[in-house]
Write a structure and sequence with these properties.
Helices cover 39% and strands 15% of the residues. It has one domain: Isochorismatase-like (Rossmann fold), CATH 3.40.50.850. It contains 10 helices and 6 strands, in the order H-H-E-H-H-H-E-H-E-H-E-H-E-H-E-H. The protein has a 6-stranded parallel β-sheet with strand order 3-2-1-4-5-6. The chain has 252 residues and is α/β, with parallel strands linked by helices. Helix 5 packs parallel to helix 10. Helix 9 links the parallel strand 5 and strand 6.
């Protein structure tokens, strides 16, 4: 039950009413308040965002524009391991795959004007995550298996203009373990939207990556304060192992 007697010296006269209190307590009774509860495989989806060549590989968009891919590329093997553990534990693994340039126009004037000012001509001078192209393909090691949903998006957030919410609800999902690229762009945007759609957000620090450490860390602070819980991948794996969903690691 929530503590209804918390004192604030500078509070105004507004008070929680008895009806409000009853609703708050009823809602909190079903809250998932531990990492173990949030990551139970039967209601958890591992969401893999935009691990595609244009964001991760030499010759892709970020590399072409001169960004350092080290943080992203060194993250991917940890993510591949987490995907394997999620499958073993029985979690739903969902892949978000961006398609920007296509024969059917998906680029608004708002989007292209931002490119003119800030994005070095991407989408205009050369395609990014082109439909059917190399840039939009999944990066090394990211290989969906039959039955794992692939959601195509056309903006930063994975919920905007997609069926992601329907896929998650249809599978009884309550919690999202957020991973992928880039931390402060599409992963953060999808995490925020997930929270706004009333999913528990578990944000895997070491299974997300971006081109700048300060940007990465700023997202972690923002997510943990306002939108979810920041963790390391091993914390999630340990929850699955402790619940008996994973075999114990062999010891030498």
């Amino acid at each position: 039950m929530a503590d209804s007697k918390t004192a604030f010296s500078n509070r105004n006269s507004d008070k929680i009413t008895p009806v409000m209190r009853a609703n708050i307590d009823k809602t909190l009774a079903r809250a998932l308040t531990t990492l173990e509860a949030k990551t139970r495989p039967e209601h958890t989806a591992l969401v893999v965002v935009d691990v595609q060549n244009d964001f991760c590989a030499e010759g892709g968009m970020l590399d072409t524009e001169g960004f350092d891919l080290t943080r992203i590329q060194t993250m991917v093997p940890r993510l591949v391991n987490l995907i394997e553990k999620a499958r073993e534990a029985g979690c739903l693994v969902v892949y978000i795959q961006t398609i920007y340039n296509a024969e059917m126009n998906l680029m608004s004037d708002v989007w292209l004007e931002q490119s003119l000012r800030q994005w070095k001509g991407r989408f205009i001078e050369y395609p990014v995550c082109m439909e059917g192209g190399w840039g939009g393909d999944f990066y090394n090691g990211i290989k969906p298996i039959p039955g794992e949903p692939i959601i195509h998006k056309h903006r930063y957030g994975g919920f905007i203009g997609t069926n992601l919410d329907m896929v998650l609800r249809s599978n009884g999902i309550r919690s999202l373990v957020m991973t992928g690229a880039i931390t402060n762009g599409c992963v953060e945007s999808t995490a925020r939207d997930g929270f706004f759609h009333d999913y528990y957000i578990v944000f895997a620090d070491d299974c997300t990556g971006t081109v700048d450490e300060d940007m990465h860390n700023a997202t972690l602070v923002n997510i943990d304060r306002w939108f979810g819980q920041v963790v390391q991948a091993e914390e999630v794996i340990s929850c699955w192992r402790d619940s008996g969903r994973l075999a114990d690691e062999a010891t030498s």
